[in-house]
Amino acid sequence: MATQRNLDETTITDAVVDQFAGTPDPRLKHIMTSLVRHLHDFAREVNLTEDEWFQGIDFLTRTGHTCSDTRQEFILLSDALGLSQLVVAQNHKRAPAATEQTVFGPFHIEGATPQPDGANIAESMPGDPLFVTAQVTGIDGTPIVGATVDVWHADAEGFYDLQDPNWSRDEMRLRAVFQTNTDGRFSFRTIQPSAYPIPTDGPVGEMLQATNRSAMRPAHVHFRVSAPSYDTLITHIFVAGDRWLESDAVFGVRSSCIADFIRREANETAPDGSKPPQPFYTLDYTFRLQPI
Amino acid sequence: MATQRNLDETTITDAVVDQFAGTPDPRLKHIMTSLVRHLHDFAREVNLTEDEWFQGIDFLTRTGHTCSDTRQEFILLSDALGLSQLVVAQNHKRAPAATEQTVFGPFHIEGATPQPDGANIAESMPGDPLFVTAQVTGIDGTPIVGATVDVWHADAEGFYDLQDPNWSRDEMRLRAVFQTNTDGRFSFRTIQPSAYPIPTDGPVGEMLQATNRSAMRPAHVHFRVSAPSYDTLITHIFVAGDRWLESDAVFGVRSSCIADFIRREANETAPDGSKPPQPFYTLDYTFRLQPI
Predict the structure, then answer these.
(1) Which residue of A50, B174, B236, B265 shows the fewest CB atoms closer than 10 Å?
(2) How many A×B Cβ pairs under 8 Å?
């Protein structure tokens, strides 16, 4: 047992670890022990001052106060520090043929409305039409029937519905849940997403500004694809050619998740057979799920 | 420049550090770089799962939501993880003759009422009377005249005034500010403090319970002593013999800050010349300040 008195910046670490020695759950004990050692190593390595410590306390407090039912500033902080993508990567080792996982992000909502195949999930919203056709398969290409596909994305100005201060939960926009058909396929119509900054009006935005970092994320559509016997796939499909693909503020870009959002001229035939009177985009993508 | 695409749990660290490379303030750049490396090392070392990551996000969010004008749960967390005492220790190297620094804690309030020498700061509060006589000197014993001494402590049940949900700022209890006299001395009357648990009704309490840790702190009185040309001393004086001196929940005990709170019988003569009709305690202590 390490002494618990007269602790200096070196001896205190073993003293704190000793206080966690009686943790009943061995996993929690392992995590707390490692957390304390790394937290203390950090504070010693930079020789943290009391003013800096207090700035950290204040930053965390304001980050907590920024969190609400519709905003998760701690997830945003984790994303911007690369922790989210690190955790995703180490928990989803994938066969090379499988579609890769990326960060979940803070903007998903459970309980979006189920929609029939081909639905327009951007009814009356401004933006260039986007027609998405997609298939869900195993890594060998076998279609997966009845997979559940959650879709969500930002609007043409880069905002999610829940970022609107007047938004209420019964007015979901640019969100839907689809089921794959007997060919493992689903399709929908929406609007072309745009690149956007992560929210910069809170503590995470302050951090990005103070460190001269870009807040931009390349344009993307979020997908969560789940089916029995497969590892649920949470990913984005990024727009090929986006200027922010090499500097995503949350480190989520994977080459296998970049796809061509092909621009079509007005009056060309869209995948649903219509001939939109304005230019539009098409995306065709195959999600390959990793078996469990 | 590290690649910013297809990052795995190893390559992501350099990618994130690279994004902080343009930080204008070199000190902030150093801190963020070290923070990212240690945070990532922790997540890799324990192979943090997504569920555990989310439990961490939820814990931090609830810790933030527990913070208010009168409660600082992040300081409490820092205290309970030994970070606060580590930072205090590495910022206040003291000559052996100087009184040692310990944690500030979350219960201080700026702006307590100045009181004349000898004041009773526990008027009408239940508890055993305590008479404090003290001197403030340099490390060579020279009295320091006109030092400002902030005093605060918990009541006989272990609670600070601001922990009372009905408390308002104009009803400060067991707090005062004194000035040392021409001998460098000050004195006051209060009640004997008792050992107490740090607040256990929030996330920090959950952590202590889940890890089977004691929430108890040994009985103490807080002091902040400041004078021109001396390093401000923030410390506690602990009650000798307290059963929690070897397991302080916030790792703040220093042998040089343990003092005899001597029990006296009813009708003995107190330091102020009175003869209290009930048993009482006396404390005499010399604070030795480190020159800047």
Answers:
(1) B265
(2) 224
